[in-house]
Amino acid sequence: MNINDKDNLRQWHVAYTAPRAEKKVSDRLSEQGINHYLPLKKTKKQWSDRRKWVEEPLFPSYIFVQVDRKEYFDAINTDGMVCYIRFEGKAAMVREQTMSDIRRIAEAGLMAEMVDEMPRPGTRYSINAGPLKGISGRVVRLKGKTHFVLEVEELGKFLVLPFSAS
To answer: Where is the domain boundary, 61, 94, 127?
Structure first.
C-alpha cells in the first residue's frame, strides 16, 4: 500500500449533530455524495388528538459517516454537524462488524433503547438464530423482562434490546 492509498481509505466515524438535526444532516450528506448511515427506530408517539408511529434516530444526535481523509473535513463542515466523537484526542473509528451489527438491529425493527451505563452485568450471550444471528452481548434483567445488551464500544454506549428466551 502506498501513502496515497491511505488517504483514500474510507473509515467509519461517529459524528455528533445538533439536537434533532439528524435527518436534515443525513439529507445534506446525501446531497454532497458522502456515504453515511443514520439508524432509525419506529416509535409510537402520543399527541393530545392522535397516536402515530414515527421514525426516530436509534442514537439521538449521532450519525455515522464513512469518509476518506478529504471527505473527513467536508462531512464535519456540513450544516448541522457539531463534531466527531473523540477518544484520547483522536476521532473514534467504528469497526465494520459494529456497523453491520447496528444495521441488523435497526433493520430488524426491534424496540431498542440506548443507555449511558451498563446495566447490572450478567452472562455473555450470543444470538444463534433470526435476523440478529451472531451478535453477542450480555443478558440482564430489567423490570422483570429479559433484555439483550449490546455494547457499542466506539460510542461508549449500550443498546438494550428485548428478546425471547427459547
So the answer is: 94
Q: Which residue has better confidence, 155 or 21?
A: 21
Strand partners, 14: 64
Same domain, 35 and 63: yes
155, β-bridge pairs: none
What does the pLDDT look like over 107-127, one tens digit per residue? 877 666 666 665 555 666 666
**Alpha helix locations (H) across 20-116?**
22-32, 69-76, 96-108
Specify the pTM: 0.72
Identify residue 51 by its one-letter amino acid code. Answer: R
Residue written as grid cell 492509498? 5
57 strand-pairing partners: 40
Q: Are 160 and 142 in contact (CB under 8 A)?
A: yes
Q: What is the secondary structure of 103-137 as a DSSP string? A: HHHHHHT---EEESS--S---EEE--SSTTTT-EE
- Cα separation, 157 vs 38, whole angstroms: 16
**53: nearest Cα among 113, 115, 109:** 109
- Rounded CA gap, 117 and 114, in Å? 9
Do residues 125 and 154 both lie within one domain? Answer: yes
